[in-house]
Amino acid sequence: MTHLPFAELHLHLEGTLEPELVMELARRNDVTLPYRDVEELRAAYAFRDLQSFLDLYYANMAVLRTRQDFADMTAAYLARAATAGVRHAEIMFDPQAHLVRGVPLEVVVEGIASVLATSEDDHGVSTLLIAAFLRDRPEDEALDVLDRLLARGAPIAGIGLDSAEVGNPPARFARLFARAREAGLHLVAHAGEEGPASYVTDALDVLGVERIDHGIRSLDDDALVARLVAEQVPMTVCPLSNVALRAVDTLADHPVVEMLERGLNVSVHSDDPAYFGGYLDDNLDALGSSLGLTREQRIRLAENSVRSSFLPADRREELL
Ligand code: HPA
Ligand code: ZN
Q1: Gene3D superfamilies this protein is in (predicted)?
Q2: Alpha-carbon gap, residue 200 to 311, rounded angstroms
Q3: What is the ipTM of this complex?
Q4: Any ligand 1 atom below 6 A from CB of 271
Q5: Binding site for substrate, residues?
Q6: Would you give the DSSP letter of residue 245?
Q7: Rg of the chain's alpha carbons, rounded to an integer?
Q8: Do 191 and 206 form a contact (C-beta atoms < 8 A)?
Q9: Which uninterrupted H or E stretch holds 87?
Q10: pLDDT tens digits, the chain, 320 residues: what are they?
Q11: How many A from CA of 243 to the centre of ligand 2?
Q12: Is residue 12 within 6 Å of ligand 1 at its C-beta?
């Protein structure tokens, strides 16, 4: 099957760790997990909400210890993304989640970057790396990690904000985003996944983000929707994720097509594909069967994804 060229703009690299790779890395690194086999691990992938997912997501990271582990995870993702029609990927990783486990920053960054460096040649997928900061940890820690990334010249194109949203509003990270902006980095943030529409407004006005990750709760506020349409703010929506984390009841109830029809600049992405039931193609196929996504709508989603990327104009043109 031929695919439209898509840009994957909302993907957590650690969320691509498939159960098979978790078990393989556990064996390789002699890490004891509370699961006997892949089936037992897979059975744990039933979530009530964002936090119940995050608990497993962080726990499974225990198997990531060496440069090779990070490189293997990255290579496995790129190979799979290429088969999904992804031609460009802006990949988030969570440096703090590894630092708190005692894994040095250079192990994480060098492991990932070593594979990204050849991804265009190896897989036909261009890439950018985004350091995502954990909003349920202190801003001072995030500032310190950002400074360390910048000091060592880590190949990051931007920063993001993720982890437990409710009770951790964007405004807590104003200094972090100001510093990243001064450093010339792109700015994105999760907002309006479980948190209220006001977090979307604050991500735009207080943090100055260029893209909103998720943003589905914006639909609770008509004035905000009108603004998002007028400004054509990119929103990276992840349907299988929203259903898996029960932000939306079923795929048939998912608002993404309504968002598209209301003129919002939405595109579809996979978030944590190993945990939520699939990659970019799986998300699109699921929307096709549950919401009757048309070929025309699929094309709009593909074009929006490329236009909402941080690619230079010439590479964008190649993909449009
Ligand atoms: N939401 C918030 N933080 C995250 C997610 C998510 O879906 N995945 C990894 N970190
Ligand atoms: Zn996400």
Answers
A1: Metal-dependent hydrolases
A2: 24
A3: 0.97
A4: yes
A5: 272
A6: T
A7: 18
A8: no
A9: strand 86-93
A10: 457 999 999 999 999 999 999 999 999 999 999 999 999 999 999 999 999 999 999 999 999 999 999 999 999 999 999 999 999 999 999 999 999 999 999 999 999 999 999 999 999 999 999 999 999 999 999 999 999 999 999 999 999 999 999 999 999 999 999 999 999 999 999 999 999 999 999 999 999 999 999 999 999 999 999 999 999 999 999 999 999 999 999 999 999 999 999 999 999 999 999 999 999 999 999 999 999 999 999 999 999 999 999 999 999 999 99
A11: 13
A12: yes
- Taking the complete model, does pTM exceed 0.95, yes or no? yes
Which ligand has the shortest distance to the CA of 135?
1
The Cα 132–Cα 66 span in angstroms is 20
Three-class secondary structure of residue 63 per DSSP:
helix
The residue to which tokens 């990750």 are assigned: 213
Looking at residue 56, its amino acid is L
Is 201 within 8 Å of 223 (Cβ atoms)? no
Report the CATH superfamily, name and number, of domain 6-309.
Answer: Metal-dependent hydrolases (3.20.20.140)
Minimum-distance ligand 1 atom for the alpha carbon of 12: 9
> What span, in angstroms and rounded, lies between the C-alpha atoms of 9 and 307?
11
Question: For residues 317 and 298, what is the distance between their CA atoms, to the nearest angstrom?
Answer: 18
Residues labelled catalytic: 193
- Which ligand has an atom closest to residue 17 CA? 1
Annotated binding site for Zn(2+): 10, 12, 190, 271
Answer yes or no: is the C-beta of 265 below 6 A from any ligand 1 atom: no
Q: Helix, strand, coil: what percent of the chain each, to 5?
A: 55, 15, 30
Kindly report the CA angle at 88 between 54 and 114, in degrees rounded to 5? Answer: 75
SS3 label, residue 19 = helix
Do residues 47 and 246 make contact, with C-beta atoms less than 8 angstroms apart? yes
Q: How far is the CA of 162 from the centre of ligand 2 (A)?
A: 7
CA-CA distance, 311 to 88, in Å (whole number)?
9
